[in-house]
Amino acid sequence: MQNTQDYQATFIDYLENFYKDREPKNLYDPINYILKLGGKRLRPVLTLMSADIFNCDYKKAMDAALSIEVFHNFSLVHDDIMDAAPLRRGEQTVHEKWDTNTGILSGDAMLIMAYQLFENYEPATFQALAKLFSKTALEVCEGQQYDVDFETREDVTIPEYLKMIEYKTAVLVGAAMKMGAIVANASQKDQDAIYEFGRLLGIAFQLQDDYLDAFGNPETFGKQVGGDIIENKKTYLYLKALAFLDASEARQLEQLFTVNLEDNFEKIETVKQFFVSSGSAEATQKEIENYTNKAFLVLETLNISEEKKELLKAFGNSLMTRKV
């Protein structure tokens, strides 16, 4: 097996061939732009890693990996429009650099291009990949709608929030890993298990993203720190803080999440103090560890070597302790 950096480097080389100067430029230039912004390339790396784990030449999974990356970036373009986000990976978002209509249309094109990549596989593999992709894409849309709904609801529960991040983020991580297993012709049992590993790891990943949104370093995080607080998002941090705080402080926190200020610095800092003093920040870190360990338990059911299980655990641990 390769290490993560090798998968990443090989994938980026492959991605270079995907960039093309095509007309109309205002449709395709934004697609090249968002894909070139970098990012962790987590999902395509997982697809390649999964194919390799099941004794397949991982390069055969390159188109599936590229499909996942194109779809993920499509969802980011549209999410950034919905969130009115100014930055993505430390650079202007597509709708800021061009305009909203261009962002919508370029995103639509990316979704179609993601599907087209499955055409490079033989029929049975194509069908399995497309079926998984369709199910996952719809779940991602459902997760995004839950996320939007939660912004105006005052009664969001922690189980509802966990379901939202499962659909919005974790199912795509699970699908990325299962796609590699599909290309490798792994057994159905192993395909389902590697999906579950990815899904659980994806929940841990999103909880870590929520934590970093509040407590990350803006220079390494790549997004506006405190963005979730500005947007009044009911994250795990927020919901746990409400559960832990006394009635008076809980009302203060709820009040902060009903206002939008021109200068949000004071709001962000006050909310972060509530997250720390309530024990919510610590509880969130424990939940990240909890879901990571659940993912590791699933590995025991996989029909792969202990060495490969350890490599997957090392990858999971690196996600749990990341700063970006």
Characteristic terms for this protein:
324 residues; Farnesyl Diphosphate Synthase; 1% strand; 16 helices; mainly alpha; two-stranded antiparallel sheet; 2 strands
Structural description of this entry:
There is one protein chain. The protein is an all-alpha fold and 324 residues long. It has one domain: Farnesyl Diphosphate Synthase (Orthogonal Bundle), CATH 1.10.600.10. It starts with a helix and ends with a helix. It has helices at 4-16, 25-36, 42-53, 62-83, 94-97, 100-116, 123-150, 158-183, 188-215, 218-221, 227-230, 236-244, 247-256, 265-278, 280-299, 306-320; strands spanning 87-88, 91-92. It contains 16 helices and two strands. Strands 1-2 form a two-stranded antiparallel sheet.
Strand order of the largest sheet: 1-2
Number of helices: 16
Helical residue percent band: over 70%
CA-CA gap between termini: 25 Å
Briefly characterize the structure:
By secondary structure, the chain is an all-alpha fold. Helices cover 73% and strands 1% of the residues.
Which helices and strands occur, and which strands form pairs?
Elements: H1 4-16, H2 25-36, H3 42-53, H4 62-83, E1 87-88, E2 91-92, H5 94-97, H6 100-116, H7 123-150, H8 158-183, H9 188-215, H10 218-221, H11 227-230, H12 236-244, H13 247-256, H14 265-278, H15 280-299, H16 306-320
Antiparallel strand pairs: 1-2
Helix pairs in contact: 1-3, 2-6, 3-4, 3-8, 4-6, 4-7, 4-8, 7-8, 8-9, 9-15, 12-13, 12-15, 15-16
